[in-house]
């Protein structure tokens, strides 16, 4: 019989019996206490203390996760913060309403658009998945025809869509300015 699984309560009444069991099973007193210590540790890991500790760890992890998600959701985002307008060679724009695509390559116009979008703090409004319509599709391109910033969508003067989120702002984006540039492009194209 394994002595670890045998529960022996040492009280004043059964102490002599405990000594006889020790002699009959030929355990040394130090070995007995080592086995009892291991048994105590194993039982305490399954016991109430360990369960409370696991609960505290799980609750702490959940609170940290919620704080991280809240920070991720509510902290304002700035689009293209690391983009220098001087590096942008041209901006490809496609109007989703009229299906007209045009390129902006004048440095002052590029600077105005890039800085306007950079300086406007955006907050997440919701998920943009399954939203199919958009105002303008915009991409910044360098002189080697590489996209500096992946395509994003300017839906109105106060919203940007970049998968998977829809962002809104309190300021005004350059939506009307892009409409103006599109009209100029169409007028020059007709001449």
What would you say about this model in short?
By secondary structure, the protein is of the alpha+beta class.
Describe it for me?
The chain starts with 14 loop residues before the first helix and ends with a helix. The longest helix has 27 residues, at 48-74. It is an alpha+beta fold and 191 residues long. The model is unreliable at 1-13 (pLDDT under 50). Strands 2-1-4-5-6-7-3 form a seven-stranded antiparallel beta sheet. 43% of the residues lie in helices and 21% in strands.
Topology (elements, then pairings):
Blueprint: H1 15-24, H2 29-46, H3 48-74, E1 90-95, E2 100-104, H4 107-118, E3 123-127, E4 136-141, E5 147-156, E6 159-162, E7 165-168, H5 175-190
Antiparallel strand pairs: 1-2, 1-4, 3-7, 4-5, 5-6, 6-7
Strand order of the largest sheet: 2-1-4-5-6-7-3
Rg, rounded, reads 35 Å
The major β-sheet equals: 7 strands, antiparallel
Anisotropy-based shape: rod-shaped
Q: What class would the helix/strand composition place it in? A: alpha+beta
Q: Point out poorly predicted stretches.
A: 1-13
Q: What order do the SSEs take from the amino end to the carboxyl end, as H and E? A: HHHEEHEEEEEH
Helix run count: 5
What is the rounded distance between the termini? Answer: 103 Å
> Mean pLDDT across all residues, rounded?
77
Sheet-strand content, in percent, reads: 15-25%
Please count the beta strands (DSSP E, at least 2 residues each). Answer: 7
Helix content: 40-55%
């Amino acid at each position: 019989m394994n002595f670890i699984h045998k529960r022996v309560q040492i009280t004043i009444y059964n102490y002599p019996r405990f000594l006889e069991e020790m002699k009959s099973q030929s355990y040394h007193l130090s070995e007995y206490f080592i086995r009892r210590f291991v048994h105590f540790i194993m039982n305490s890991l399954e016991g109430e203390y360990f369960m409370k500790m696991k609960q505290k760890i799980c609750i702490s992890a959940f609170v940290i996760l919620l704080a991280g998600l809240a920070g991720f959701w509510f902290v304002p985002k700035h689009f293209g913060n690391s983009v220098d307008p001087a590096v942008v060679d041209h901006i490809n724009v496609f109007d989703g309403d009229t299906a007209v695509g045009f390129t902006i390559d004048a440095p002052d116009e590029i600077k105005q658009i890039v800085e306007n979008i950079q300086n406007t703090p955006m907050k997440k409004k919701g998920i943009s998945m399954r939203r199919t319509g958009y105002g303008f599709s915009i991409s910044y391109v360098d002189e080697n025809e590489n996209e500096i910033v992946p395509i994003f969508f300017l839906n109105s003067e106060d919203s940007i869509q970049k998968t998977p989120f829809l962002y809104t702002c309190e300021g005004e984006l350059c939506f009307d300015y892009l409409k103006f540039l599109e009209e100029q492009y169409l007028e020059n194209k007709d001449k």
